[in-house]
Amino acid sequence: MTHQNLQEVLDATDSTVELLRNSQLGAYIYPVVAPEFTNWRSEQRAWRETAVLYDQSHHMDNLFISGPDALKLISDTAINSVANFPVNKAKQYVPTTPSGHVIGDGILFHEAENEYVYVGRAPAANWLLYHGETGGYDVKIEVDRRSPSRPMGKPVQRRYWRFQIQGPNAWKIIEKLNGAPVEQLKFFTMDTLQIAGETVRTLRHGMAGAPGLEIWGPYGSYDKIRDAVLEAGQEFGMLAVGARAYPSNTLESGWIPSPLPGIYTGEELRAYREWLGADSYEAVNAVAGSFVSDDIEDYYLTPWELGYGSFVKFDHDFIGREALEKIDPSTQRRKVTLAWDAEDLGTILTSVLDTEQEPYKYFDLPLANYGSSNYDRVIDADGNTVGLSMFTGYSANERRGLSLATIDPQIPEGAELRVVWGEPDGGTAKTTVEPHRQFTARVVVSPVPYSVAARGDYKGGWRTGYTK
């Protein structure tokens, strides 16, 4: 029997947890863009020392939302306030379920009156699309899904190309491209720029801890703009960043990209699960890591646990408001960086040379995640689970293994904890999992963002999780 939707997939399994933990999807792929243009170590160092060009054209969904009720749709589904959301501003978009659990997140661009573009991963895009289609809103939504993970040589076409110019030398390159000084507008403010005779849209950003721009335009000008940017950046040490290094930048800057959407339970969400396809992101999402629970709800997270507590505004009605109003933020786990002990990480890395016994779970570089949503146990000295390590890899800038995690609120910065690396019982049936042993690695609770430069640039912003 062929399942038609997510609800039918769930009804046919005894365990949602086991379904997702044994998904055949594998790790989250950043498609189309070459893995490396130089090497991932140099590309990582360039965003800290010189400048980089990030290519974001292919790995995210785009939703083009227009119409008189576009802002109402956004307001009704977001924990964020939209009381101040003028044209030419962008805003982080975070929706929650009726029970107050995060579905996902992305960026909303207010491009023109009653015209918005959502850019991000599928869970939040699906939530917006569902409510736009079923909620009685006077809106039009055009969908431009991310590029295929494995295009197999077939042509790929998007509506927009999307790049970022980042790093200490970014502004010199931007002004060279423009042929004139460019005002450093406030964070998440939009404008335009002239590049190679084309007018492109811009967003003031700072992904690498220094002032930079996100730029975008019609996909037909992809090659022309990319070539012009790299040519202008050559004298300033600019490197193009490949798909291998690109996702590891968040280890330094502090965004947890892929929490499990909290939509698999609750009768009030049945209609949504029946709307989601049997091949949707939510149906095939691969959950990886050492944290295992019989209850899928133990994988759900609140906004505070992901550093989005400052976004929660009760100045409007939205899905999940009633549940969030009952939560005491001081009781919630908080987002941190975990700095891995060098000796322990070395033991994991060199275990592949052990000819006597199974190696530990392979720790890929620079990004070690082996699922779409990653959940490793963080334990204290007594073996109690005190948090979840959710995004793991290596920074050539810090020369250290790092994890983004959410941990119990009473644990102070500087405390030593442990991350259980690898899955129990030799591992699941995921395509990314080989037979292995578990290893318990020492980690130190550290700030988020871990990069000092990024902490200064993002202070009070969405990556820090600060509530002031």
Number of DSSP helical runs = 13
Shape: globular
Per DSSP E runs of 2 or more residues, the count of β-strands stands at 19
Helix content: 10-25%
How does the helix and strand content classify structurally? alpha+beta
Please outline the major beta sheet: 6 strands, mixed
Structure, explained:
The chain has a 6-stranded mixed β-sheet, with helices on both faces. It has helices at residues 6-11, 16-21, 40-49, 70-77, 122-134, 170-178, 222-233, 249-253, 270-275, 281-284, 321-325, 342-350, 452-458, and strands at 51-55, 61-66, 90-93, 106-112, 115-120, 140-144, 160-166, 190-195, 198-205, 212-218, 238-240, 287-288, 334-340, 373-374, 376-379, 385-395, 400-407, 416-421, 439-446. The chain has 468 residues and is of the alpha+beta class. Helix 4 (70-77) packs across helix 5 (122-134) and helix 6 packs across helix 7.
